[in-house]
Structure formats: structure tokens, C-alpha cells
Design brief:
Blueprint: E1 10-11, E2 25-33, E3 39-48, E4 53-57, H1 64-71, E5 77-84, E6 87-89, E7 97-99, H2 113-118, H3 122-125, H4 133-145, H5 161-173, E8 179-183, H6 191-206, E9 210-214, H7 218-221, E10 226-231, E11 233-238, H8 240-243, H9 246-253, E12 257-262, E13 265-270
Parallel strand pairs: 4-9, 4-10, 7-8, 8-9
Antiparallel strand pairs: 1-6, 2-3, 2-5, 5-6, 10-11, 12-13
Helix pairs in contact: 4-5, 5-6
Length: 274
């Protein structure tokens, strides 16, 4: 997706970059936190290439959710820069699609699957306007992309945990962005639902969608293109085999994680839910 330099949300970069070769997302020196509290993340920097799937791991309180909220503009960042596809921006809340944690969503609200996904079109529809045919087409495409088209008329509360996650991924896709932030989508789901979500992410990868996913599941994280270990700052960032080292994991988790060598493989055992 090529972003328009003329859009008022974006600032003209000092040097014009090739939109096809620059990172999908570039985060440089971000520091952020909540008012009256210590800074949850400090001097965080990393780049994500187009179509990459990045797992962000770290213990509770490491700043994973804070990072996502800073990227989408829900909380301000006091230092640093964020750019999407080479375009510097004042804010990022309209540029990135964000799927919050399961616990942050009221699943009892009486809306259908189709209604939920249409919410992703709200800014494009405009205030007090009805959806257009283009909006309905975007919703249909997003539902089909995550395999939830047959459930469009179901109440959201009637779905399984994995299905609910897929619907909110569809809502994010309906925003017409190709960079998604998923906060703990595996939390509270069973093995079958986790596999459904992973299959959905694999399909999105084939479509060129860039994804950053925060998770406590280290085994799931090892299946991603790159892993970022966060504990208020970046401990390590790179391919899983380079990041999952005893030193990096102990620096993040202390004694709660043990690493056992088994031939050419590394078995990661997390004995804590933090």
C-alpha cells in the first residue's frame, strides 16, 4: 500500500525514500508511558520489512502493550519517531490497525460479526453516514480473508475464542492498512483455536500483510520471521535462532525460563504465566 505524501497526517521526509524498498514500519528511539508513572518503554528502536511477521515477547510489565498503544497514538510518546512505508507521521492512529487484548473488549455487546468488521470502516464512512457499497465490499473481503464469511450474521458473543480473534483481525483489515498490531491473540484460547489463528496469519503473510504480534507463548513466537525481546527496552531483535539464547532469555525472564539444548534444537520451557 503506497501512502500519499499529500495526506495531512504525514510529513514530507527529509530525503525521499523508495516506498518499495524502505521498511514497512520504522521505530526509532521511542520512549512512552502513562501520565504520573515511570516510562514503560525507553529508547525502543527496530525496523520491520514488508510482509514480515514479528513476535514481541517479554514478561508482564515489559511494555508490549504500551509499545502498541504508542504506535497507534492511544498514548503519546515523549521521544522518537515512527514511520510507515517511509513516510514520517505526526500521529499513527490512522495508519496502523490495532487488535487489543481479548479482555479489553465487551463481548456481550449485541452486534453481529458483520457489524464489528464494519466498525473498521468508521473513519472512511464518516460521521452520521451510511456505509456505501465500497464499504460493504471491503467488509466482505476482510471476512473472506480470515475465513469468517459464513459467520457474518452471527452475534459476536456466540463465537468461539479463536473465531472472535479472527473477526477482530478482519475489522483491522477493513481499515485498508497492511500493517497490523495484535496484542496477545493467543491468550485464553485452546490449542485448536491457536492453530486456527496461526493458519489465518499464514494466509495473511501470503497476501503480504505485515504483522507485529505480542505474545507470552514462546513456542509460537519461534515460528515467526523475527522475534523482539522487550523489557522496557529492546534486549534482542532478530531471527528466532539468534534471539532465543540463554543470555537473552535470562535477561528478560530471570530464573523463570530455562533453556535446554537438544541436538540442533533449543527447547524453551516457561514455568511462569508472567
Amino acid at each position: 500500500m503506497a501512502l500519499r505524501v499529500s495526506d495531512p497526517l504525514y510529513l514530507q521526509p527529509d530525503h525521499q525514500l523508495d516506498a518499495e524498498t524502505c521498511p514497512a514500519l520504522a521505530v526509532h528511539g521511542i520512549t512512552a508511558g502513562y501520565p504520573g508513572q515511570r516510562r514503560a518503554i525507553e529508547n525502543v528502536s527496530f525496523d520491520v520489512q514488508r510482509g514480515q511477521h514479528i513476535a514481541i515477547i517479554g514478561p508482564n510489565g515489559a511494555g508490549k502493550s504500551t509499545l502498541f498503544k504508542a504506535l497507534v497514538g492511544l498514548i503519546p510518546h515523549s521521544t522518537g519517531e515512527i514511520s510507515l512505508h517511509g513516510e514520517n507521521c505526526r500521529t499513527s492512529h490512522r495508519m496502523l490497525a490495532y487488535v487489543p487484548q481479548h479482555e479489553a473488549i465487551d463481548w456481550s455487546f449485541p452486534v453481529t460479526v458483520e457489524d464489528v468488521v464494519m466498525m473498521g470502516r468508521a473513519r472512511k464512512i464518516g460521521w452520521l453516514r451510511w456505509p456505501r457499497s465500497s464499504d460493504r465490499q471491503a467488509v466482505d473481503a476482510a471476512l473472506d480473508q480470515v475465513g469468517m464469511g459464513p459467520f457474518r450474521h452471527r452475534q459476536i458473543g456466540e463465537l468461539s475464542g479463536g473465531q472472535k480473534r479472527r473477526v477482530f483481525i478482519a475489522r483491522a483489515l477493513a481499515q485498508d492498512t497492511d500493517v497490523l498490531l495484535l496484542d496477545e491473540p493467543f491468550s485464553g484460547v485452546d490449542v485448536a483455536a491457536e492453530q486456527e489463528i496461526m493458519e489465518t496469519l499464514d494466509a495473511l503473510k501470503q497476501a503480504g500483510i505485515t504483522i507485529l504480534l505480542a505474545t507470552h507463548d514462546l513456542n509460537a513466537a519461534s515460528r515467526f520471521d523475527r522475534v523482539l525481546i522487550l523489557k522496557n527496552g529492546v534486549i534482542a531483535y532478530g531471527e528466532p535462532q539468534d534471539v532465543f539464547t540463554p543470555d537473552n532469555l535470562r535477561q528478560a525472564y530471570g530464573d523463570r525460563v530455562s533453556v535446554v539444548g537438544s541436538g540442533s534444537q533449543t527447547i524453551i520451557v516457561n514455568d511462569s504465566h508472567s
